[in-house]
Write a structure and sequence with these properties.
InterPro entries: PGBD, PiggyBac_TE-derived. The protein is built from six helices and nine strands, in the order αααββββαβαβαβββ. It is α+β, with helices and mostly antiparallel strands. Among the domains are: about 1-30, no CATH class; about 40-155, no CATH class. The longest helix is centred in the middle third of the chain and has 16 residues, at about 130-145.
C-alpha cells in the first residue's frame, strides 16, 4: 500500500528509498522467520510468522507508556489470499482479511495483538474454560499487570467481550472494566424489560448492582452497559 497513488496510503519515503518490483518483492519472496521443516501448524496456524509477531509484541510493550485507559477490540488486515484463517465479515469497511485482537491505549498505541484463528481456538490455555471474548481481555490484562504490577487500569470493550464473570475476574486482578453487554448475558435480573424502556423518553435508565460485587448493570433507552 505504500506504493499506491492514493494520498492516504502512499509513502514517498518508502517508494523513493525502495522500488516495489525489484527490491521489495524480491525481499518478500525470500523472507522467512521460522524453519519450515519444524513447523507445527496444527496448534498454531500462524506458526510461520509467529516469531515475528512475538518480537513485535515484545517491542510494543517494552516502549509503551503507562496509561490508565485501555481498549480491547478487533482489527482487520485486508487480504484476498487463500488462507484458512482469512475472515469475511459482512457490513465492515474491510470485509475480507485477517482479524486481529488488539489491546491499545486511549491514544491508539498498540501494546499487544494476536491473530484470530477460529472460535474454538483460545489464545491461552490458562483461560481455556472461557469463551474467546473474555479470554482475550484477560490475556491482555495479564500483559499489562506484568509490565506495571500494582497499577490499577481501566479496560473498555464491546458486547462481544462483555460478561459478568469477566468483570469479576478483572476485579480480582485489580482492574476496572466498562463495556456494553448483550441482554442474554444478564439473565435472572430485575431490570426493566428492554422493550419497555425503549418506549420511555431518551435518557431513561434502570440499573442493578450485582450481589456481593461492585458491578453495576445499567439499561437505558439507547444502550445496555455494565461497569465495575
Amino acid at each position: 500500500m505504500f506504493w499506491e497513488n492514493e494520498t492516504d496510503t502512499h509513502s514517498s519515503l518508502m517508494s523513493k528509498a525502495l522500488s516495489r518490483v525489484n527490491k521489495f518483492e524480491y525481499i518478500l519472496s525470500h523472507f522467512h522467520v521460522a524453519d519450515n521443516m519444524t513447523l507445527d501448524t496444527t496448534k498454531d496456524k500462524f506458526a510461520k510468522v509467529r516469531p515475528l509477531f512475538d518480537h513485535l509484541n515484545q517491542k510494543f510493550i517494552e516502549h509503551s507508556i503507562c496509561e490508565e485507559m485501555h481498549s480491547i477490540d478487533e482489527a482487520m488486515v485486508p487480504s484476498f489470499g487463500r488462507r484458512s484463517c482469512k475472515q469475511f465479515i459482512l457490513g465492515k469497511p474491510i470485509r475480507y482479511g485477517y482479524k486481529l485482537w488488539v489491546g491499545a491505549t486511549r491514544l491508539g498505541y498498540i501494546n499487544w495483538f494476536e491473530p484470530y484463528q477460529g472460535a474454538s481456538a483460545n489464545i491461552s490455555t490458562k483461560y481455556a474454560e472461557l469463551v474467546v471474548g473474555p479470554s482475550v481481555v484477560l490475556e491482555y490484562s495479564d500483559i499489562l499487570k506484568q509490565k506495571w504490577p500494582g497499577v490499577q487500569m481501566h479496560l473498555l470493550f464491546d458486547n462481544f467481550f462483555s460478561a459478568i464473570p469477566l468483570l469479576e475476574l478483572l476485579s480480582e486482578k485489580n482492574f476496572r472494566g466498562t463495556g456494553t453487554i448483550r441482554e442474554n448475558r444478564i439473565s435472572n435480573n430485575n431490570l426493566k424489560d428492554s422493550g419497555e424502556i425503549k418506549k420511555e423518553p431518551r435518557g431513561s435508565y434502570d440499573y442493578r448492582k450485582v450481589v456481593d460485587n461492585d458491578i453495576i448493570v445499567v439499561i437505558s433507552s439507547s444502550v445496555c452497559t455494565e461497569y465495575l
